[in-house]
Amino acid sequence: MAVSRRTFLGTVLAGSAVSAIGVFSGTQAARAASPAGDVVGKITVGYQGWFACAGDGAPINGWWHWSQNWSQTPSTGNNVIKAWPDMREYAHAYPTAYPNLGNGQPATLFSSYDQQTVDTHFLWMQQNGCDTAALQRFNPNSSEGPTRDAMAVKVRSSAEAYGRKFYIMYDATGWTNMQSEMKADWTGKMSAHTASSAYARQNGKPVVCIWGFGFNDANHPWDAATCLDVVNWFKSQGCYVIGGVPREWRTGTGGSRSGYLGVYHAFNMLSPWMVGAIGNAADSDSVYQNINVPDQADCNANGVDYQPCVLPGDVSGRQRAHGDFMWRQFYNMVRVGAQGIYISMFDEYGEGNQIAKTAENQAMTPANSGLLALDEDGTVCSSDYYLRITNDGGRMLKGQIALTATRPTAPVAGGGGDTQPPTAPGGLQVSGHTATSVALSWTASTDNVGVTGYSVHQVAGGGNTVVGSPTGTSFTVSGLAPSTGYSFFVTARDAAGNTSAASGTVSATTDAQSGSTDLALHRPTSESSHTQVYASGNAVDGDPNSYWESNNNAFPQWLQVDLGAAQHIGRIVLTLPPPSAWNARTQTLSVSGSTDGSSFATLVGSAGYTFDPATGNTATVTLPSNASARYLRLTFTANTGWPAGQCSGFQVYSS
């Protein structure tokens, strides 16, 4: 079997012949090669961001990483994950073919392509001391590329919004033309993100990680000279370069090729991989003695920063020991004097070693699915437990709490074992509605400890989607289609994560649309392609200075918006950024529409539209009087000002 980061298994550590070099006393801190920055002295979490769902607007258009067959809905028989996410805080949830959860609610999953999903994850990072996110980037020169490009934009937005740092972490696994294509991807696309205030810097340099050099398997075949060339190239670009390397990097044995020590020492920081190598506290102690201690000594001697992995353990393998396994690793990594810690991983539900919020018990997993929850060993754990352990581990790394082998984090916040759910919200009613919103209100639930918030569910297609998570007893659901009927119910939750029964269901019909409302504003988008950071979402974000731009010299190209429901379309207003630097240009495009997102009919034939800064860089497309669609697609075939399709504002109006 090909070895990748997700399947890498090593030799038995307890029998390792590796000798320790200069064992530290446990109170002696290692000498840091670099001062504190965005990775030194910090907790970094590996962020996959690679889950998509059919219908989420992602270019990959499938159940990316949720199922074995991405074209088919996930189910018990089409399953590739080892743990089930806690879905209560996601605004958008996608129905699956799994049985209902043990509590009777539909089994739904999130999409990383929804900005609110990434926002929710970065909010959890902010709340739990996760300083920096390493965005995983596999070979982007494939069908996955456009979706991965879009995820970089979404991660950047969330990091900026929640005061976190992020950096690009290239995974070279299986990347045939890695040496040239990784460099081209950095200069052509990813380096643009270093302009963000949220992009991680160490020693004043933008951080880049490369995972996979030196692994002794067919999926990582490059010789040492090739790898060294890539490391030195990134350093020549002014980057601080981290290496995700085999755990036996220093000895060139086991999972590491021999003769790569010069490559490893060329990195600014080393982060040896541990997933699959340890499964209990005794394994961690063996690694500490036989690997971490001599690793740290070698890094000290060669001016390299050390960032070992800490993992929560595989839920399905019953490794977690209600947090004791993860805490032992934190204790060992802090006492060895590590310069930083890398958490493997934040959202890796496929391996089951995620710290993101996870099903607490069988009531929160699909019935008869075989998926275990956090209470698999009989200890009640709140869904955020491993986030809270990470927070405490980070505090110990930073010297904010004393070094301790005793886990300070309670499985349930407050130390209790509350399993009593709140009462159902009462008196749910519609308190108002507009063409695009419905306002709801209800009476408060009660709880033996205390209600912490509510979830507003929109009923649709035989299931329901959480559309809001207010803490009070009212909420306005926005982004709805005009003249359309909707139904809603509300549930309450407490601090232990218990969920109430559902309130009654109410229904409302939105008002008719006025002709002055932009139906496309903040709606989901998709695209044939985009270059650098100019993704399709820029065309509906309301910012006149951001824009979508397709790949160059690759006509035809298309830009699409999902209005949420089929409705009458009177006109489309297209804009380009207003600065005079944008010279006048004519773009040739057509408009097509669809009710299902797959079968499109031409609404307006191909024609040229002139955009002139002197008149606002705006063009209006008038549609036939009977035009109606849910999905609107612009197909660009020419542009006199640039060899690509361009659009800053894709505005849609009913009249």
Automatic annotation (TrEMBL):
Compositional bias per record (Low complexity), positions renumbered to this chain: 500-512
Q: Where is the F5/8 type C domain?
A: 505-655
Pfam families from the xrefs? F5_F8_type_C (PF00754), fn3 (PF00041)
Q: Where is the composition biased (Polar residues)?
A: 526-535
Q: Does the keyword Hydrolase apply?
A: yes
Q: Which InterPro entries match?
A: FA58C, FN3_dom, FN3_sf, Galactose-bd-like_sf, Ig-like_fold, TAT_signal
Q: Where does the record place the Fibronectin type-III domain?
A: 424-513
User: Origin, by domain of life?
Assistant: Bacteria
Keywords (A to Z) from UniProt: Carbohydrate metabolism, Glycosidase, Hydrolase, Polysaccharide degradation
Signal peptide feature range: none
Note whether Hydrolase occurs among the keywords: yes
Q: Which intervals of the chain are annotated as region Disordered?
A: 409-431, 500-547
Identify this protein by name: Discoidin domain-containing protein
Native source species: Streptacidiphilus cavernicola
